[in-house]
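A.,

Following up on our hallway conversation. Structure tokens first:
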């Protein structure tokens, strides 16, 4: 049984990632920590509770995390995911925020990892602010983690929110810098360019939504706005965060990766928030990360289908 903590800024793709984890019988979700990002942290909390309700898993604890970045100006993805992160689809029967745990997200991460030292996989699909605060409070935290899986960053300076920056890292470059510097556990990164290259045709969505389960209807509804935006931009179906989750769930999902030391640019006019790959070993870093390159897309499709059955 894999023990997982999920750190999210839900976000439709975060919702899909959560559902993938909950659908797998070999995964135990210890908790879900919430961070600002795609929308406000209050909306993220509401969205996570909506996902847990449709999955009949409101027993999983949900924790409130950071509402803004460490230093950077706060941005969001209102244009792509809607102002509430779920396509502005109302839900009059959504669970209330009284279900949110009193403990702060960063303390929950520390406590859950300490209680399960060496066993916890942390899957981070949001700006890395909660993780940066957690390691500041508990410097030994990374040594107790089994692994860290991140959706974020880029490998070819292709941005999706700035010229050279991917959304999660640009939201909080200082947090991303600190996490990649201080989390020395095995680390796997699904970058923006990687997800673009492994996106799925829209015909898959048609098959997916034809299942007409409560879960598939839920995903179809909350993703209408972002699907429309993606198609207008000429993109394929790219549930970015789900790739990091799939890798965390199934070790065989990644078929090719690249091991290299990385850092994050903090000062560039055009490159602030860009992930830097140290091929020349100028950083003299001992810790390297695994950059996901190729994955088993048939396995990915199967996991997506199982998530909404």
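Then the amino acids I'd put at each of the 309 positions:
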């Amino acid at each position: 049984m894999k023990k997982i903590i999920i750190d999210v800024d839900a976000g439709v793709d975060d919702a899909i990632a959560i559902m993938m984890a909950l659908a797998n019988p070999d995964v135990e979700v210890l908790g879900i920590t919430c961070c600002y990002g795609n929308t406000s942290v209050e909306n993220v909390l509401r969205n996570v509770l909506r996902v847990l309700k449709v999955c009949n898993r409101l027993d999983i604890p949900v924790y409130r995390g950071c509402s803004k970045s460490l230093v950077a100006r706060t941005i969001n993805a209102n244009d792509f995911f809607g102002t509430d992160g779920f396509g502005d689809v109302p839900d009059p029967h959504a669970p209330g925020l009284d279900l949110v745990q009193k403990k702060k997200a960063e303390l929950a991460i520390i406590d859950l990892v300490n209680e399960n030292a060496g066993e916890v996989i942390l899957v981070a699909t949001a700006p890395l602010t909660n993780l940066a605060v957690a390691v500041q409070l508990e410097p030994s935290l990374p040594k107790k983690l089994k692994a860290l899986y991140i959706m974020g960053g880029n490998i070819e300076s292709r941005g999706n929110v700035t010229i050279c920056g991917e959304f999660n890292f640009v939201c909080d470059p200082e947090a991303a810098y600190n996490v990649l510097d201080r989390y020395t556990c095995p680390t796997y990164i699904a970058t923006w360019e990687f997800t673009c290259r492994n996106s799925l045709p829209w015909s898959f969505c048609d098959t997916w939504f034809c299942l007409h389960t409560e879960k598939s209807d839920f995903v179809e509804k909350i993703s209408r706005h972002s699907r429309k935006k993606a198609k207008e931009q000429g993109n394929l179906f790219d549930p970015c965060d789900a790739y990091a989750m799939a890798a965390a769930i199934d070790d065989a999902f990644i078929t090719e990766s690249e091991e290299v030391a990385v850092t994050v640019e903090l000062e560039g006019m055009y490159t602030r928030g860009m992930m830097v790959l140290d091929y020349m070993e100028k950083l003299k870093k001992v810790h390297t990360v695994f950059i996901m390159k190729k994955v088993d897309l048939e396995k990915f499709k199967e996991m997506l289908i199982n998530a909404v059955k």
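The radius of gyration is 18 Å. Curious whether your intuition agrees with the design.

B.
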